[in-house]
Amino acid sequence: MVVSTSSTSSSALSPRIWLTVLVCGLGYFVDIYDLILFSIVRQESLADIGVSAANMMKASETILQWQMGGMLIGGLLFGVLADRRGRLSVLLGSILLYSIMNIANAFVSSVEMYALFRFLSGIGLAGELGVAITLVAEIMPKETRGYGTTIVASMGILGAVAAYFVHELFDWRAAFVAGGVLGLLLLVMRVRVHESGMFAKAEASTAQRGNFFMLFTPKRLLLYVGCVAIGLPIWYVVGILVTFSPELTRESGSAASIVAGQAVMWCYVGLAAGDLVSGLISQWLGSRKRTVLLFLGLTAGLVWWYLHTPNRSETITYLQTGLLGFGAGYWAVFVTTAAEQFGTNLRATVATTVPNFVRGALVPTLALYSMLHTGQVSGVEWVRLDQPLASAALLVGGVVFLLALVGWFLLHETFGKDLDYVELS
To answer: Are 176 and 105 in contact (CB under 8 A)?
Structure first.
């Protein structure tokens, strides 16, 4: 391991550094806006291009599968490129790609075209957060970089709230165009954005950069798996508990009419608040690990309350989805922790792939949930367990939180760690 002693503290408050943080935060804002907007306008947009109600689910699954495929490819592609070519150029390339695809989404006329544009959007969306967190972590002083990454994540999560309200005001095509135009405007701000000095030093070294296979040594692989594991509860909360809140509320004995889009909106309000609070707590405690453990415990308690509340009203359900979002709102600390575990020549690769593997892990998580409830996975009969929705969700949650706890034990404390070093083969 080669270590440098350079510091960025002297320029910590420079306008260029805070402009970089702002651009990264706004980039993630548009990223989440686009990601959530599709979920909000899915049924409306598909009906508008001629998809029948009978084929709505099949078309939705096809488009989402293509989008997820794009995100998995984009996470690896942009992470490797950011370690090889530089953080700034790759970040701007990611913003450019998903901004253009946002606008293109407004002009789709078939499921095939929609799937193609969501695939390309997915590639661009996958690259933004990890590269942004890496760039901000490397240009901020080690003692205060948590504030910068917290700002980025908190601004991003608010993109989901913006998507909900923009859709309330405009039709789905105009909402997609608005997101694309906002992304393109960000590129105008690129002129004074700060590149990472740590990357420049790593570029001048002889160490391999962006080699994903360097992660497959026993020590690095355990760290990498630990990084993925601690993020699993976040998408369990969003992808199962909040997404299926209408069904879970009905099963509780309630006659309340829950709007899934509104539940998602309140969840993301909570996520934004949680990201801000968890980031601040990690700075006050001087510990990423203790903060993650605190929020894992809080989220587990909220999950138990949510799944054991009988006859929930609309107000209680929306309150609970907001609080669940708050508990799962350690996304900034999670991605920052992943970035801080590895050297400069692998940092962007890790920070970009880890959150996308966490998102991708929702696929087997949903499969387990479906099997426990219906005995089927993708229409194929497995074992008839016939668990109620809440019981199935609770069992899946037990698995997810156990894996997260194991992952937490595998990780190092990284608060205040000097990141100016490279990993040797």
So the answer is: yes
- Full set of structural domains in the chain with CATH: 14-192 (1.20.1250.20), 210-419 (1.20.1250.20)
The pair of structure tokens assigned to 330 is 């350690």
Written in H, E and C, the secondary structure of 275-315 is HHHHHHHHHHHCCHHHHHHHHHHHHHHHHHHHHCCCCCCHH
The partner residues of 2 in beta bridges, in order of sequence, read 422
Residue 140: what are its φ and ψ, rounded to 5°? -90, 155
Query: What's the rounded Cα separation, in Å, for the pair 319 and 266?
Result: 8
User: How much is the CA Rg of the chain, to the nearest whole Å?
Assistant: 21
Using CA atoms, how far apart are residues 96 and 99, in angstroms rounded to an integer?
5
CA distance 350 to 340: 9
Residues 87-125 have pLDDT tens digits of 888 888 888 999 999 999 999 999 999 999 999 999 998
DSSP β-bridge partners for residue 422? 2
3-state secondary structure 124-155: HHHHHHHHHHHHHHHHCCCCCHHHHHHHHHHH
Q: What tens digit of pLDDT does each residue of 235-256 get?
A: 999 988 998 888 899 888 988 8
8 Å CB contact between 75 and 359: no
Instruction: Measure the CA–CA gap between 282 and 332, rounded to whole angstroms.
Output: 10
Nearest-angstrom CA–CA distance, 347 and 422: 9
| Measured distance CA(329)–CA(234) in Å, rounded | 7
pTM: 0.85
